[in-house]
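Dear colleagues,

As part of the handover before I leave the project, I'm documenting each prediction I ran so the next person doesn't have to rerun anything. This entry is a single chain, and its sequence is reproduced below.
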Amino acid sequence: MTATACDRSGARIGIVTVAGDLHAHVVRQNLLDRHGVLCHIFETDRLADSGIMDWTTTAPDRAVLPDHTGSAVEVASLGAIWWRRPSGNSWNRAAPVLPQLADEAVIDLVRNDCLATFLGIVATAFRGVWVSEPDAHRHAENKLRQLHAAQQAGLRIPRTLVSQNPEAIRAFCAGQPTIVKAVAGTNKTPLMAHTVNEELLASDESLRLSPAIYQERVEGHRHLRVHAFGADIHTALMTCDELDWRIHLDKLKVQRHTLSADLQRRLRHFLSLMGLNMGIFDLKLDPQGDPVWLEVNPQGQFLFLEGMSDMRLADAFADHLTGLVRPIRMGQYAREAALAV
């Protein structure tokens, strides 16, 4: 099916991300090939010098944004937006954009104004379904909010302390194996969970420097990666002896897994509490096989599991996105049929 034919068939889908995002391009092609749905990728780190962003008070619904091909897209034409990986930096220095600019103040002005315009356009012109709504996505990234919502949803979580108080940290860690991980982290270096040791606990200076998350260590080597695409849940059981499997993918064994109906209900409740349309959950099975909730990524990675198992997660996610715009597309057909009578 051609892009033109897709465009006439009804609502389209937008993906907000950064340049070179494999997930965005795989899902876009999947939507086109399997569902005939036209999809636009908006690269928020390449807004500068696009020459396309346009919004006016006289016709805010006609606002346009540049997609990854450089084409102008009316935001009001989108039935859903996947808020995949928005960047706070609207200028990718690696891209050949305005190379003559060297003044840091001017660069900062361009970066901030481009991003503010982009956010203003989607906030005022978009009328479709968010996956997930930007404010909900931002709130859900906060680990303390996550833990609080998990408790409310009735999920079992590890005993947790978030602190920079040396005395409180030592008291919490006494007599139990404990892990430590960052509260927010940084995109400038990977920060993985590791076991608290005596050297760390002995240093007041290190403990006081910044709050960190201290949790009782959940023993065992079976991990669950739960992909909740709306009400649709797909789970991978991953076996790995390492504490943090993310840096030991070569040691992972992956297979499909089915969660209990009760656990699925609690995870859906969590999404509802957080206002999320999707979420990628990490849980761990303790030695008795009981699941312990660890965290959620509102826009987690999932394609790596396709190469390690028979799971078709890109298909499942494209199906979810298509289901969100299908009522809009059906409404389009109904209007066209009524006009034809």
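The first strand starts at residue 12 and ends at 17. Residues 63 and 127 are 12 Å apart (CA to CA).

All the best with the project,
I.
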